[in-house]
Amino acid sequence: xxxxxxxxxxxxxSEGALVLLxxxxxxxxxxxxxxxxxxxxxxxxxxxxxxxxxTLVKGINGFEAEFKKSETSFHLTKxxxxxxxxxxxxxxxxxTTGGFxxxxxxxxRLFVKA
Amino acid sequence: xxxxxxTPKFRILKIGQSMTLQCAQDMNxxxxxxYRQDPGMGLKLIYYSVGAGITDKGEVPNGYNVSRxxxxxxxxxxxxxxxxxxxxxxxxxxxxxxxxxxxGPGTRLTVT
Lengths: 114, 112
Hints:
By secondary structure, chain A is an all-beta fold. Chain A is about 0% helix and about 60% strand. Chain A is built from no helices and 11 strands. In chain A, strands 2, 4, 5, 9, 10 and 11 form a 6-stranded mixed sheet that branches. Chain B is mainly β. Chain B is built from no helices and 11 strands. Classes of the chains: A mainly beta, B mainly beta. The interface of A and B includes residues 9, 96 and 106 of A.
């Protein structure tokens, strides 16, 4: 069965510090993987996606994620946090096994301290 | 190109009332979805559709109904509203099932 786990419901970093949000997945077939961001009172928007091409994926706003098959991970990073990065982040896995399925993680809220 | 639009933005219902949440997309996407989001619980899939005339249940379909008569529209019907349906509802669409999803701005529903 497919699943996705985000480690840490809340992460707090200082402005300028490294952002690391963790995502592990399980899938019996090669997955598509996504990171979405949700700002307060808005819908989710795509940050980046992995679709079996390059394992290091660059997204919007300076974020990137690396697909590591051996670790079944797809962690999201940004070298230097900005105040505007404060939001909730969702990892998602999408597979097609007899029909599509996209599963979202529970989300990680990122706080950025001045 | 408006993307995914949802109406209304906010609604307060009394227990037992009914309402329809509207969702439309102008991207000619085949797939459309309805999710509910409760605090700290992520997204739960209510219903989805793979094309006009075809709908299927997600994880939490009880108390809801949907229809898909056109590619563009995917309304969600709540019959006999209950306090447990207090939530934020998001509509989304994608071209194919594995593709990234585009989300609407959400409808915040309170049932009292």
